[in-house]
Design goal:
The protein contains six helices and five strands, in the order βαβαβαβαβαα.
């Protein structure tokens, strides 16, 4: 069985990696799909995110995952890939409510698609891409929140 983990992953965090590792154990193939979020201004290019996520998957030994990107509706992407399962990480009750609403919309658009929610490991419950971007903007270290390659890439952005 294949599944998709969707998000902007701008950048990925150790919380994302935790979800990827756990999700990869319950499916044959996990596609980490970067969706262009029209409501957000990107921090990293899609190309950089793909490369960095691929490096992180290798670093953490997640062998049955690949990275892709897509502009448009998740239901259209999933139809094009012949996938009926989305796996979403959940950090909080508020996020669960948001994700339940999203799952309802997806199910309305395509009743063949199911969503599975994985609660994040409590040590990552406060970690988000937006928090990483904010810490970086103020010159704080992000090394405890992101994979090593992401931390190096982000710290090199500051030097340019």
């Amino acid at each position: 069985m294949k599944a998709v983990c969707t998000g902007s992953f701008d950048p990925i965090t150790l919380g994302h990696i935790d979800i990827f590792k756990r999700a990869s154990k319950i499916v044959d193939e996990l596609i980490i799909c970067i969706f262009h979020n029209v409501r957000k201004k990107s921090f990293l290019s899609v190309e950089d995110r793909i490369k960095l996520i691929e490096e992180s998957l290798k670093e953490f030994g997640i062998k049955n995952a690949r990275v892709d990107s897509f502009d448009g509706l998740v239901t259209e992407y999933m139809k094009s890939q012949n996938i009926q399962l989305i796996i979403r990480g959940i950090r909080s009750p508020q996020e669960l409510q948001y994700e339940l609403n999203e799952a309802d919309v997806i199910r309305k658009l395509d009743p063949t698609i199911e969503t599975i929610f994985l609660p994040t490991d409590p040590q990552f419950s406060f970690v988000s891409s937006s928090m990483v971007r904010e810490l970086h903007a103020f010159g704080a270290s992000v090394k405890d929140f992101v994979p090593n390659n992401i931390e190096k890439f982000i710290s090199n952005l500051s030097k340019k």
